[in-house]
Structure formats: C-alpha cells, structure tokens
Specification:
It comes from Herbaspirillum hiltneri N3. The chain is an alpha/beta fold. The protein has one domain: 3-Layer(aba) Sandwich (Rossmann fold). It has a seven-stranded parallel beta sheet with strand order 3-2-1-4-5-6-7, with helices on both faces. Strand 5, helix 6 and strand 6 form a beta-alpha-beta unit. Helix 2 crosses helix 9, helix 5 packs parallel to helix 6 and helix 7 crosses helix 8. It is globular and about 55 Å long.
C-alpha cells in the first residue's frame, strides 16, 4: 500500500459522533460521509437533527441530551443497531458554559458544564467501548478537548476545567485500552470561526469591558499564525487520526489552533 493511501480512513467505517448536527461535529460528520463511512450523529436540538438528515440522507441521527444517561443509552442502542457495530467513537458534544469571575459563577451553570462536557464522555464511553472491542477494523476513540485543555483560561474556569479533565481521561484510556488495540486521542481546537465562538468572544468582552472587535483582535494576536481555525481544519485532523496512517498514534493531545500561545 502506498503511503498516500494510508491517509484515507477505511471505506465503510462505522462512526458515532456526539453533539454533531451543527458546528465542528457536523463538519466531522460530513468529512466521514465523504469517505464512504456509515455515520450516526446525535444532538439535543431536534430541528438541527432534522436539518442534517435532510442535507445528508445517508446519515443516521437521533435526539439526545448528552447529560442524561438514559438519552445516551437510547441513541447508542439505536446506533449499534443501525450501524451494525462501531469502529470509531468521536466524543464531541459540549457547551461553552458561563463566563465570569469564579466567585460570581452560578453553581447550576457550573454543574451543567461539567455534566455536558465531561460526564457525557463517560456515558458514551461506557456504551461504546464494548462495541469497539468487538471490531478489528482499526478501532479508535477521538475526544474533543480544547486549547483550554492545555492553557489556563481567565474567567472561563468551568469550561477549562472540563477540557483539562478530558485530556486526563484520554491519556488514561489510551493505556487502559491499548492492549485491546483501541487507540485513544484528543483533538484540541483553538479559536474556531463560527457562531459559538462569537458568543464566547462577546461574553468575555462584556466581562473585561471591551468591544467585540477589540476582544476578537485580542484572540487573533495570541495566535502565531494570526488567523482563526475552521471546522474543516478540525475535521481533517479527525480523518487523519481515524486513518491507517495513525495506527501507532495513541494517547496524544493534538492541538489544531495555529499555535495559540496563551489565553
């Protein structure tokens, strides 16, 4: 096999992606569909689920609040039936969480961020790992962390805490699941263009008393390449990590961020 062929994920790969009707998750789903993969996505937004099913008739999709174990159990059971098994789990679901000084944060908002961003990853892993152990087709797990999972993030402590924890979860699972030939890696996106990041910038600008444009420029100045990343940049990394070319890559936290120097 030529080296260039190793860069292509196997056709027919069975992929589950959480929180993937929009944004990064949807871009990853579309990329895998283009390779011929069988893809199942879930999302909390029924309208977004309907929209992605209309746009991509081959996709399987379900509605789920990933912070609820019963919802995760339901979509994972449906996915196992529809896909006939599982080769790749992509734990993508997450929320931005609240912005503010730690003493001013709402405790319920903190709990929601931990539950959605971190606990959900465990819920999906608990159901997915037995399926992955039953496949010989390059099984792997990709967890979505963030550049906030390697840097401190002022006024964004709930979000950053979950993203650091996800890296620890990935590192531990890479050791635990390696003997079962299951690779585990994390992607750490940087400042990703889109509606969600605009909301984060606006909230932080308000906290710091800056305009939106001033806050956005402040983010860009911290990036060595002086540009934001796109959802397609993140999707491309996911394709690589799922490909035969990455068969000996596990336990890695890989940033896709233009080298964000600090937050």
């Amino acid at each position: 096999m030529k080296t260039v062929d190793l860069l292509k994920p196997d056709a027919g790969l069975r992929v589950f992606i959480s929180g993937a009707a929009t944004g990064i998750g949807a871009a990853i789903a579309e990329a895998f569909l283009d390779t011929g993969a069988a893809v199942y996505v879930c999302d909390i937004n029924p309208a977004a689920v309907d929209a992605i099913k209309k746009t991509h008739p081959r996709i399987h999709a379900g509605v789920a609040d990933v912070g609820k174990r019963e919802d995760v159990d339901a979509v994972m059971a449906d996915a196992a039936e529809k896909l006939g098994g599982l080769d790749l789990l992509i734990n993508n679901a997450g929320i931005a969480g609240p912005t503010g000084a730690v003493e001013d944060l709402d405790a319920d908002a903190w709990d929601q961020t931990i539950n959605t961003n971190l606990n959900s990853q465990f819920y999906f892993l608990k159901r997915a790992v037995p399926l992955l152990k039953n496949t010989s087709d390059n099984p792997s797990i990709i967890t979505l962390s963030s550049v906030a999972g390697r840097l401190g993030y002022q006024f964004r402590t709930p979000y950053a805490s979950t993203k650091w924890a996800i890296v620890g979860l990935m590192k531990s699972l890479a050791v635990e699941l390696g003997p079962s030939n299951i690779r585990v890696n994390a992607i750490l996106p940087g400042v990703v263009e889109g509606e969600r990041m605009d909301g984060v910038i606006a909230a932080r600008a308000k906290t710091l008393g800056l305009s939106f444009d001033e806050m956005r420029e402040d983010y860009v100045k911290k990036i060595s390449l002086r540009r934001l990343v796109t959802t397609q940049d993140v999707a491309a990394m996911a394709l690589f990590l799922a490909s035969p070319a990455a068969r000996n890559i596990s336990g890695q936290a890989i940033s896709v961020d233009g080298n964000l120097e600090y937050l």
